[in-house]
TrEMBL record:
<dbReference type="InterPro" id="IPR002654">
    <property type="entry name" value="Glyco_trans_25"/>
</dbReference>
<feature type="region of interest" description="Disordered">
    <location>
        <begin position="373"/>
        <end position="393"/>
    </location>
</feature>
<feature type="domain" description="Glycosyl transferase family 25">
    <location>
        <begin position="84"/>
        <end position="353"/>
    </location>
</feature>
<dbReference type="InterPro" id="IPR050757">
    <property type="entry name" value="Collagen_mod_GT25"/>
</dbReference>
<dbReference type="Pfam" id="PF01755">
    <property type="entry name" value="Glyco_transf_25"/>
</dbReference>
<dbReference type="GO" id="GO:0016740">
    <property type="term" value="F:transferase activity"/>
</dbReference>
<keyword id="KW-0808">Transferase</keyword>
<comment type="similarity">
    <text>Belongs to the glycosyltransferase 25 family.</text>
</comment>
<keyword id="KW-0328">Glycosyltransferase</keyword>
<protein>
    <submittedName>
        <fullName>Glycosyltransferase family 25 protein</fullName>
    </submittedName>
</protein>
């Protein structure tokens, strides 16, 4: 039997030839001797990296009646839809439209501020910017231009950070806040994301572009329609590694990064490249974010901006039915039904169209501006300032974002006459609102009589169409 010895540290050492050898102590690694400390530090490091990369993954519910549960989107639920103010452009004598707008907003818990419109006859010749040709336009066109300038002037004067400008024949789906939440996720990415969107990181699909020169808007001087549409699911950009890192008080992204959110229109083109070169890298400037299986989007056969439109919107053939898309508005856009401006955007637009000059219908001029083109000033044209590169070149970028189909649309009441010039010669042929399925205006009588959301009439069902009495 071997004799053993116990040392002062209670470590056992065998005895050999009556000589005691002190036991050698093993020095454990620091993480083994302090497992709780190691676990705590590891968890902290994981949490820090996760929070820096974007925080929670925002899940988009499949049910279009459901809201997105995320603190950054909660302001969209307020009475101004996440904007500082909502301005409604209304001619004082159109009390019929003011009554309808007041009632529609009240049933949707939306707070409006009415801004008096002006007629073209009331504008003195000395008040027009160049060129002189714009004074020969129809009175309704001139009055519309000045009314929009007055709205922009108000926003600049009051230093409003973001404002939504709407015309008084606007309509929206009862799921307006749900739609705007999804748009806000897209607008943040499209306005704030910098650099190239590489394929390994982003699941980009290049779909054939079905837009042609004949079906596109004829308001742009240059025709740079690409052959493909780089597309990316909206749900894929909400992972932690894809979210823009800019934090802003606006749910729609940093107002210093965008000019216009053109979310109410009567048709928009797909984004176009600023260069004639082929194989352009995919960036936020030309990518299209897609929201599939969106129940607020009518079926493809209903995607027409006007009753007299000969062909369907290119969206109908480019993407599967019930797909909503979000992108930069560089392919032309028409009708200023509803658009939001940042303070930056309001100043730029007021300078361009109120001071520098304009020469056409305001909505088409705005569509050209968003596409990077300026009004045709004729002999009054000024040479563009020389580019000095760097920050100056970056500041010239015009960032206009849009949704197809639009989130807001023109409502065509029975025998509704336009004071600008009108659709179809001044009258819409049908009592309807294009693009909106559960339209507030089309269901207004049911809503004021207490009908619930799921009891309202879909004016654009998948099969056929329903006439709402």
């Amino acid at each position: 039997m071997k004799r053993i010895s116990v040392d002062n540290f209670s470590l056992i050492s065998p005895k050999k030839d009556d000589v005691f050898f002190p036991a050698k102590r093993r020095r454990n690694a620091w993480y083994a001797s302090s497992p709780k400390l190691f676990t705590t530090l590891l968890c902290f490091m994981v949490w820090y990296c996760w929070s820096q990369l974007g925080g929670n993954i925002i899940e988009i519910p499949g049910d279009q009646f459901a809201f997105i549960e995320d603190p950054s989107l909660v302001d969209i639920l307020n009475t101004t839809l996440g904007f500082e103010k909502i301005l409604i452009l209304n001619l004082p004598f159109r009390t019929d439209r003011r009554d309808a707008m007041t009632l529609s907003a009240a049933t949707s818990n939306i707070h409006l501020e009415f801004l008096d419109g002006v007629t073209g006859e009331s504008i003195k010749p000395s008040a027009y910017p160049p060129p002189l040709e714009n004074q020969k336009l129809q009175a309704g066109i001139r009055g519309s231009w000045r009314t929009h300038m007055s709205a922009l002037q108000t926003i600049v004067e009051q230093n409003i950070t973001t404002a939504l400008i709407m015309e008084d024949d606007v309509d929206w789906d009862i799921r307006i806040r749900q739609n705007l939440q999804r748009f806000a996720l897209a607008s943040r990415f499209l306005a704030e994301k910098k650099g190239t969107l590489s394929n390994p990181q982003y699941d980009i699909e290049n779909r054939p572009n079905t837009e042609t020169k004949e079906t596109s808007f004829q308001i742009l001087n240059e025709n740079k329609i690409g052959s493909t549409l780089p597309s990316l699911p909206l749900s894929s950009i909400n992972s932690a590694s894809h979210q823009p890192t800019t934090h802003s008080s606006s749910p729609y992204g940093n107002p210093a990064e965008w000019d216009i959110l053109w979310i109410g229109h009567c048709g928009a083109g797909f984004p176009r490249s600023s260069s004639a070169e082929k194989n352009q890298p995919v960036t936020a400037a030309n990518v299209i974010l897609t929201q599939a299986d969106d129940d607020t989007v009518p079926n493809s056969q209903h995607l027409k901006a006007h009753p007299f439109q000969g062909t369907l919107d290119p969206l109908a053939s480019a993407y599967p039915p019930h797909t909503r898309i979000f992108h930069r508005a560089t392919g032309g856009e028409l009708c200023t039904v509803a658009y939001a401006v940042s303070q930056r955007g309001a100043r730029r637009l007021l300078h361009q169209f109120g001071v520098k000059g304009w020469n056409g219908i305001f909505d088409s001029e705005l569509g050209r501006w968003c596409a990077g083109e300026d009004p045709d000033m004729g002999p009054h044209a000024r040479p563009p300032p020389a580019s000095s590169g760097g920050k100056s070149a970056k500041a010239k970028e015009r960032v206009c974002l849009t949704s197809q189909p639009p989130i807001f649309a023109h409502h065509h009441p029975q025998q509704g006459e336009s004071d600008i010039g009108g659709l179809g010669g001044g009258y819409a042929r049908k009592f309807e609102t294009k693009y909106l399925r559960l339209s507030v205006r089309m269901n207004l009588e049911r809503i004021v009589n207490g009908a619930k959301d799921r009891e309202l009439v879909d004016q654009w069902p998948d099969e056929g169409g329903q006439v709402i009495p």
